[in-house]
Amino acid sequence: MADETTTLAGPHPPEPSLPPVRDWPAGPLVGTEFEPVLAELMREGPLTRIRLPHGEGWAWLATRHDDVKLITNDPRFSRAEASVRQVTRLAPHFAPRPGALAWADQPDHNRLRHAVSAAYTVSAVKRLRPRAQEMLDALVDDMVRAGSPADLIARVLEPFPISVVCEVMGVPLDERRKLHTWTREIISTAGGADAAELAKKGLFGWIGQAVRDRRDTEGAGDGESEDVLSLLGAAVRRGELGEEEAISVAGPLQIGGEAVTNNSGQMFYLLLTRPDLLERLRADPASRPAAIEELLRYIPHRAAVGLPRIATEDVDLGGVRISAGDAVYVSYLAANRDPAVFPDPDRIDLDRDAGAHVAFGNGPHFCTGAVFSRMQIELLIDTLLDRLPGLRLAVPADQVSFRQRTMIRGPLALPVAW
Ligand code: HEM
Predict the structure, then answer these.
(1) Ranges of the chain whose pLDDT falls below 50
(2) What is the pTM of this model?
(3) Residue with the nearest Cα to atom 40 of ligand 1?
(4) CATH number of the domain residue 269 falls in
(5) Region labeled Disordered — which residues (predicted)?
(6) Which atom of ligand 1 is nearest to the CA of 332?
């Protein structure tokens, strides 16, 4: 790949056939505002070239809904190839674990995903729902008991997803406090990179032992409604998965609650700063499921872009040639603001059909936790709106601070009163 770069202020195309390479610096990001660099790239064309703060070279960026769907569903774009290259990226460090779902291509990806899929189906999540409601009620009880005002993130939006994840994973009750602490260290920006690394070591070590224990327990994971660790232990026992692979699959699933904390943090921030939206959802519970989809479409879930893919052969896309070996990013956030699919896309419109959004991705790498996340978000909206009819921000909106230098965006704290 050539390495010529321009800034957004001054494009100087290096070759007539290729768009210029744009530098995409990290942040700063404001509240729930759409990232301005991404908005500019979307205006420049359906396929642009970008260079992020870390890694090497440049990569293509696709922003249109139809291109994003095509690329993410086309085996000519490989994740496994990207895992062994230093593709230009947002994250300073890059150490993909062999066997991680996100970096696998077919047929490995199917094999890895199949091992845990039973725990995330619609019916499995339906079975989990009453227990999740109990856990949420207990957290809201505690918050109410401690009195108004309170930090909704610390009291509910962080501990709830971590607790539900422990339930799905099959973490024994007396081990949960330890896992809560590790998970919090990993997802919080407060303790720094070293603390997060140490916590990861602790968590992955614990998961490894848990998988081995279940592997050695005859019958564990062979039943119908099994937890993730038992399913993985059984898959290792049957020889379908290596032990390291099982750990690589389990790790992101254990930490995945972070996404719900931050996504619902942004959702409640939007609702609490937009009384028209909040009132509508309070008054009309039937409108909530569609409203959640519209908010998922609108929320800028992450900074910059996620994981890249590598083209394994030349692919022509809308008159542009992506050459074999080129790195390619898609932006699900940009696709969710494609005016061809969502007219007036920067407006939250609770009456639109947002069903075509790609907030959970698309294709084989579609989010494993999508049904599970929706269930948690529905419970959060129903429980907090119905139990606390006076719920409001306890500080002016501009005093809510948001995570910076982070992959997943969300408020650091959400002070509320009721
Ligand atoms: C609102 C919350 C969430 C959002 C918006 C979200 C979004 C996404 C997106 C956009 C992807 C990437 C698709 C791609 O690579 O092309 C993804 C992948 C993934 N998510 Fe989520 N996610 C959420 C919650 C969760 C939760 C709670 C879990 C775990 C229980 C989870 C586990 C995963 C895993 C394992 C992958 C990789 C799947 C694969 O590559 O096969 N996510 N998610």
Answers:
(1) 1-14
(2) 0.94
(3) 102
(4) 1.10.630.10
(5) 1-24
(6) 10
